[in-house]
C-alpha cells in the first residue's frame, strides 16, 4: 500500500476519532460507539487507526451515531479523494483489459498536451497491434485476469486516432532499454521500431529517446503520463495511481523535464532506434 494512501487513511481515522470525542452527547468511548452501531469494538479501533478502509456506509453510520450527520459529506469527500488515487489491477482487470483501455481513451479524448515517460515498454499510444497483443497477453498471464486480448488491442489502437487530430501534442520520452526488451518475437519488435521511426516528424508527436549511455540526473524509474496539467497516471505492479493534486502534477512535470535533458530527438533519436533495429536483422 502506498505511503500517501496509508497516511490518508490515518488522517481519516483521526477525524473519526475527533467526531467520537466531540459529539453533542459528550465524549463517547470506543466501546460505547461500537455498541451504538452494533459493531465489534475492534472495527472502531481499526477505522480510527487507519488499519481498515471505511466504506461510505460506515462513514454515514459513524456521523449519525455521534449525532453529527452534517459531517458525512466531509468524510465521504475525504474517502473519495484518497481512494480515487489508487486503482488496484485486481479490481480494474476483473472484466479484462478492454474496459481499462476504454477508460483511458476517455481521459485522453479531452486532453490536449500529454507528456509521457516509459522506461520498459514502447508507449501504448505508439504501439503496433502485434506488439500490443503480446503486451496484453503477458499482463493477463501475470494478473490471471480475463483474456480479452483482441478487444483490448482494438481499444488501444482506437485511442491512437488522437495523434491525427489538429492541436494535439504527445511529448514522449522512451528509455533505450524499452527498445531492446524482447516482450515479443524479433519480427514483431522490428515492426514496432519501424513504427517509431515513422512517427518522428509528425506535427503531433515529439519523440525523445534516452540512450543507455546517457548521463542521468535521476534514476530511470516507473513510467508515467501527465495529461495537460490536470492529471498524472503512473503504475506499479499492484496498482495504478491517478494523481490530480497540484504538488504531484508539478513533481512529475519536473521529472519529465529532467529526463528530457538526457534525451535525444529528431535525427539523433532516429539513429538510436535504427541502431537497435539492426540488431534484430531482417
Give an overview in words:
The structure is a single chain. The protein has 13 helices and eight strands. It is an alpha+beta fold and 282 residues long. It folds into two domains: 3-83, 434 Repressor (Amino-terminal Domain), CATH 1.10.260.40; 87-278, 2-Layer Sandwich (Endonuclease, Chain A). An eight-stranded mixed beta sheet has the order 1-7-6-5-2-3-4-8, with helices on both faces. The protein is elongated, with a radius of gyration of 23 Å. It starts with a helix and ends with a helix. The mean pLDDT is 93.
Radius of gyration: 23 Å
Q: Given this structure, which CATH class of the largest domain is correct?
A: Alpha Beta
Helix content: 40-55%
How does the overall form come out from the CA principal axes? elongated
List keywords for this structure.
282 residues; alpha+beta; 434 Repressor (Amino-terminal Domain); Endonuclease, Chain A; 2 domains; 8-stranded mixed β-sheet; 13 helices; 13% strand; elongated
Short summary:
The chain is α+β, with helices and mostly antiparallel strands and 282 residues long.
Task: Please specify the SSE layout and strand pairing.
Blueprint: H1 3-21, H2 30-37, H3 41-48, H4 56-65, H5 72-83, E1 86-88, H6 89-92, H7 97-109, E2 113-118, H8 129-143, H9 149-158, E3 169-175, H10 176-180, H11 186-199, E4 205-210, E5 224-227, E6 231-235, E7 239-243, H12 246-260, E8 264-265, H13 266-278
Parallel strand pairs: 2-3, 3-4
Antiparallel strand pairs: 1-7, 2-5, 4-8, 5-6, 6-7
Amino acid at each position: 500500500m502506498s505511503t500517501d494512501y496509508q497516511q490518508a487513511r490515518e488522517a481519516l481515522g483521526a477525524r473519526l476519532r475527533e467526531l467520537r470525542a466531540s459529539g453533542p452527547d459528550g465524549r463517547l468511548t470506543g466501546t460505547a460507539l461500537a455498541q451504538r452501531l452494533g459493531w465489534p469494538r475492534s472495527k472502531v479501533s481499526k477505522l480510527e487507526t487507519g488499519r481498515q478502509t471505511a466504506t461510505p456506509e460506515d462513514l454515514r453510520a459513524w456521523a449519525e451515531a455521534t449525532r453529527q450527520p452534517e459531517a458525512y459529506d466531509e468524510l465521504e469527500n475525504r474517502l473519495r479523494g484518497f481512494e480515487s488515487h489508487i486503482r488496484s489491477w485486481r479490481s480494474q482487470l476483473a472484466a479484462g483489459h478492454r474496459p481499462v483501455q476504454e477508460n483511458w481513451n476517455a481521459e485522453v479524448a479531452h486532453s490536449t498536451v500529454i507528456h509521457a515517460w516509459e522506461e520498459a515498454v514502447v508507449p501504448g499510444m505508439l504501439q503496433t497491434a502485434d506488439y500490443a497483443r503480446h503486451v496484453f497477453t503477458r499482463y493477463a498471464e501475470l494478473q490471471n485476469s480475463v483474456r480479452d486480448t483482441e478487444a483490448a488491442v482494438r481499444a488501444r489502437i482506437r485511442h491512437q486516432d488522437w495523434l491525427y487530430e489538429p492541436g494535439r501534442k504527445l511529448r514522449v520520452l522512451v528509455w533505450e532499454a524499452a527498445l531492446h526488451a524482447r516482450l515479443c518475437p524479433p519480427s514483431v519488435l522490428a515492426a514496432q521500431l519501424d513504427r517509431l521511426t515513422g512517427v518522428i516528424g509528425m506535427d503531433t508527436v515529439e519523440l525523445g529517446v534516452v540512450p543507455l549511455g546517457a548521463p542521468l540526473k535521476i534514476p530511470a524509474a516507473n513510467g508515467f503520463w501527465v495529461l495537460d496539467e490536470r492529471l498524472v497516471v503512473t503504475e506499479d505492479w499492484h496498482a495504478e495511481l491517478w494523481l490530480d493534486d497540484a504538488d504531484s502534477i508539478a513533481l512529475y512535470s519536473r521529472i519529465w523535464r529532467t529526463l528530457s535533458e538526457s534525451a535525444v530527438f529528431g535525427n539523433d533519436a532516429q539513429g538510436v532506434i535504427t541502431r537497435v533495429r539492426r540488431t534484430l536483422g531482417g
